[in-house]
User: Which sequence fits this backbone?
């Protein structure tokens, strides 16, 4: 399951009447990182939210995320297909614990989040040299 | 190739000779239109390489005899292609109306093409401009980095027009005496001798030249003068007077601000990555149409690629690798960690320094502000501070409320001078409400309140204060954080990294070096060295006076080592990493090496020195989205240099910022450039005042530069009280 769908499922699980307040949106980055087993940087996270928003699964305004009908529909169809998959059930349990008592849950997982960094084999990963361009011109002389 | 013997008299001042050789080479290119490479072969021999025969070459106005001439292959000439590209670009840009703003600078401005913009200091002219940086690739091609921007200037002709109704001609002359004027295009400072008002640019002739002003500026610089009738300014030159149209002189920004007693407020014209890429394409298209007829026989220029991919640059040897560095974890009080710095505002995370009890001892506000308004403001501030878990702010029973006349600077100054000094300053705080558009009151309060009364002072804009009255002000959390930062003691931090910066294993002590940027007359230049450990713990600092220069010499570096010795010895690091902004000159590197070699107590510690250079003219964009590269994106240029994207954003309540590349150069030390980039990247997350984003520089550089600046202005840096990071 890609991180976009995971995050959408996460929003649905912690939302109240389809709305996820800014603080919860920010908390979910730590939980998503823990679930994915790798650190999700802020811009990557905002990019995922941006992609969900572009595809009209959520609406984002001043940090508040509102799940659209399309978002709910996609999330529910994914839920149905993934029931019974341990990995996804773990994620669902994490979110349920968070929703019950956010502060206590975040305290509880702090050691695990911390260990994410020490688990990193490489602090840096190679990036494709084709997806980025430099501004300027090449001259042959 | 030509060889010439340099007269032994000229060898006495080596620096002056090197400068003169460069200037002469530039003069040669301007005069002949051909590039030339001038290199010292040995101390008394100069080698000139050109595509055309060199008839004469002069140094210090003295013609030098050519002793030997021979033909060589151009592939044997170091930096030949770079020199050719530089001359080619200057000539092409000139034909498109761009003029080099100052030699040997790399900025070209299209002075003739301007937009008039109204600002609080009157009319400003904004011109399109290009910054270039030329790099020779290992395959022999040349990559020209391009950065387009808008160059603003306040032209003298506009100043005179605006002043005509306010001043008599005597007052105008006096005003010009107080302003620094610079000429276009050289940017050199000028002394006005006299002004001839209302002259016709098409009719008047330039003395000694016979050309009209309109024709001279058109033929020499390609500039069409915009004002038909305007003043002619006569300025003093070397042995002769120069006559300028007032349109071609501009008023130095800082002297104008000082004169007008206000800072220029103008909308920043930041360009989007797409706009920059498109301007580069447009320039490429123009170059395709440009031909230099005189070069046809000797030099061919091939336009190969516009906005190349990193893969293209890697093939040509301009870069080595592109990497993305993972974000570091941040650690708050009681060991709670998170990726999100804004958790500082949640009491369950809390600030690393623990809770603080702060007593409000002074409140300064303009006379228009009522006591009720002050109470409303303080109530919200106290609530926010406690709610964030920072501790509490109480209003001291002896709190002094001072009202001042906002239009009379001396009123506030006199009030502060009459107040008693507080004995125990440990937890006291003063707040001042500054009327908008009065920066002079801000600086005066920042300087006087800490030194006279002995308490730190937090400034709040009047507009924010008024918004707070009906709950419209959104900045209380950040204001609380700023107050908390002002209460920090040595060794304390707001948050730290949960692991060593860059996940490196060596116990490292980082040293950020900051200077007071522009030493002023009568003020002692200051240097600040700020240190912390591998995770941003145990922040400490030393501030000391230096000679009036930014250049490092041995004595200077010995003094720095002397000042940081105590901290270094108590921390026992395995590695000491120095950071400084700006270019390192070879003479400085020699001085540092010699200082380190003679420093016995540093022998067991590995030392590294990293220069933080402006990477602003190295622009990239993501191919598909045309966005800036995200923070953490790094490009390894070679074994000792790399670029890293970090945020240049410091407005607090918004998340999106301008990401610009910073260029790091490992000047010495055994660390790999990749590790240098990783460490630097993590340290930018130690940016306490901006919890929503990373910063361009590590915190210790920000603190060091601010300390150096404030202590130069006689603000004490005994503790962090006085900082507005």
Assistant:
């Amino acid at each position: 399951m890609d991180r976009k769908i995971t995050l959408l499922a996460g929003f649905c699980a912690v939302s109240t009447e389809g709305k996820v307040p800014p603080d919860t949106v920010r908390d979910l980055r730590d939980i998503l990182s823990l679930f994915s087993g790798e650190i999700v940087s802020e811009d990557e996270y905002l990019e995922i939210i941006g992609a969900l928003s572009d595809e009209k699964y959520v609406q984002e305004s001043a940090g508040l995320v509102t799940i659209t009908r399309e978002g709910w529909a996609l999330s529910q169809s994914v839920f149905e297909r993934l029931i019974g998959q341990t990995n996804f059930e773990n994620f669902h349990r994490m979110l349920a614990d968070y929703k019950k008592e956010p502060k206590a849950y975040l305290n509880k997982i702090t050691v695990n989040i911390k260990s994410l960094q020490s688990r990193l084999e490489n602090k840096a990963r190679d990036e494709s040299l084709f997806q980025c361009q430099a501004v300027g011109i090449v001259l042959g002389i | 190739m030509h060889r010439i013997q340099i007269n032994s008299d000229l060898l006495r001042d080596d620096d002056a000779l090197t400068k003169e050789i460069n200037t002469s080479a530039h003069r040669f290119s301007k005069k002949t239109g051909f590039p030339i490479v001038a290199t010292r072969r040995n101390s008394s021999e100069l080698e000139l390489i050109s595509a055309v025969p060199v008839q004469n070459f002069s140094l210090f106005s003295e013609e030098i005899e050519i002793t030997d001439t021979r033909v060589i292959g151009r592939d044997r000439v170091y930096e030949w292609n770079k020199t050719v590209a530089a001359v080619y670009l200057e000539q092409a840009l000139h034909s498109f109306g761009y003029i080099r703003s100052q030699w040997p600078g790399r900025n070209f401005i299209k002075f003739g093409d301007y937009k008039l913009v109204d600002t609080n200091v009157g009319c400003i002219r904004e011109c399109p401009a290009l910054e270039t940086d030329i790099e020779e690739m290992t395959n022999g091609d040349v990559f020209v980095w391009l950065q387009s921007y808008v160059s603003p200037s306040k032209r003298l002709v506009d100043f005179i027009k605006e002043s005509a109704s306010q001043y008599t001609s005597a007052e105008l002359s006096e005003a010009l005496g107080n302003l620094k004027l610079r000429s276009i295009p050289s940017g050199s400072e000028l002394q006005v001798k006299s002004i001839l008002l209302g002259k016709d640019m098409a009719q008047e002739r330039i003395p000694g030249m016979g050309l009209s002003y309109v024709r001279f500026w058109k033929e020499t610089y390609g500039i069409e003068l915009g004002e038909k009738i305007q003043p002619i300014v006569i300025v003093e030159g070397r042995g002769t007077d120069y006559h300028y149209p007032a349109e071609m002189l501009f008023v130095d920004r800082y002297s104008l601000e000082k004169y007008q007693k206000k800072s220029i407020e103008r909308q920043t014209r930041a360009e989007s990555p797409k706009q920059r890429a498109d301007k580069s394409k447009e320039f490429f298209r123009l170059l395709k149409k440009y031909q230099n007829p005189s070069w046809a026989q000797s030099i061919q220029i091939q336009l190969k690629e516009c906005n190349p991919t990193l893969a293209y640059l890697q093939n040509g040897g301009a870069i080595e690798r592109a990497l993305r560095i993972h974000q570091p974890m941040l650690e708050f009080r009681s060991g709670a960690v998170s990726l999100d710095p804004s958790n500082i505002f949640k009491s369950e995370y809390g600030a690393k320094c623990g809770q603080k009890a702060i007593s409000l001892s002074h409140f300064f506000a303009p006379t228009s502000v009522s006591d009720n308004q002050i109470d409303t403001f303080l109530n919200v501030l106290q609530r926010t501070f406690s709610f964030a878990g920072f501790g509490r702010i109480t209003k001291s029973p002896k709190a002094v409320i001072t009202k001042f006349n906002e239009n009379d600077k001396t009123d506030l100054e006199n009030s502060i001078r009459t107040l008693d000094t507080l004995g125990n300053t440990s937890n006291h705080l003063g707040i001042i409400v500054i009327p908008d558009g009065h920066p002079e009151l801000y600086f005066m309060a920042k300087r006087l309140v800490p030194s006279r009364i002995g308490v730190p002072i937090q400034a709040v804009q009047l507009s924010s204060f008024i918004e707070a009255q009906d709950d419209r002000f959104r900045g209380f959390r950040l204001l609380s954080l700023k107050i908390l930062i002002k209460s920090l003691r040595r060794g304390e931090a707001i948050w730290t990294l949960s692991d060593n910066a860059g996940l490196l294993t060596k116990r490292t002590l980082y040293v950020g070096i900051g200077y007071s940027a522009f030493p002023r007359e009568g003020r002692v230049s200051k240097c600040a060295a700020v240190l912390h450990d591998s995770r941003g713990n145990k922040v400490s600092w030393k501030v000391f006076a230096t000679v009036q220069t930014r250049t490092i010499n041995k004595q200077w570096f010995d003094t720095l080592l002397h000042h940081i010795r105590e901290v270094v010895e108590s921390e026992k690091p395995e590695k000491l990493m120095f950071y400084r902004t700006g270019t390192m000159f070879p003479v400085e590197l020699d001085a540092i090496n010699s200082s380190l070699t003679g420093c016995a107590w540093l022998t067991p510690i590995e030392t590294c020195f990293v220069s933080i250079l402006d990477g602003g003219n190295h622009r990239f964009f993501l191919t598909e989205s045309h966005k800036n590269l995200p923070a953490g994106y790094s490009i390894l240029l070679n074994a000792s240099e790399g670029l890293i994207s970090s945020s240049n954003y410091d407005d607090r309540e918004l998340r999106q910022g301008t990401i610009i590349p910073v260029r790091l150069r490992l000047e010495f030390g055994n660390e790999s450039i990749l590790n240098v980039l990783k460490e630097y990247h993590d340290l930018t997350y130690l940016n306490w005042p901006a919890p929503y984003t990373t910063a361009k520089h590590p915190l210790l550089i920000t603190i060091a530069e601010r300390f150096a600046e404030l202590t130069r202005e006689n603000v004490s840096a005994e503790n962090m009280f006085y900082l507005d990071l």
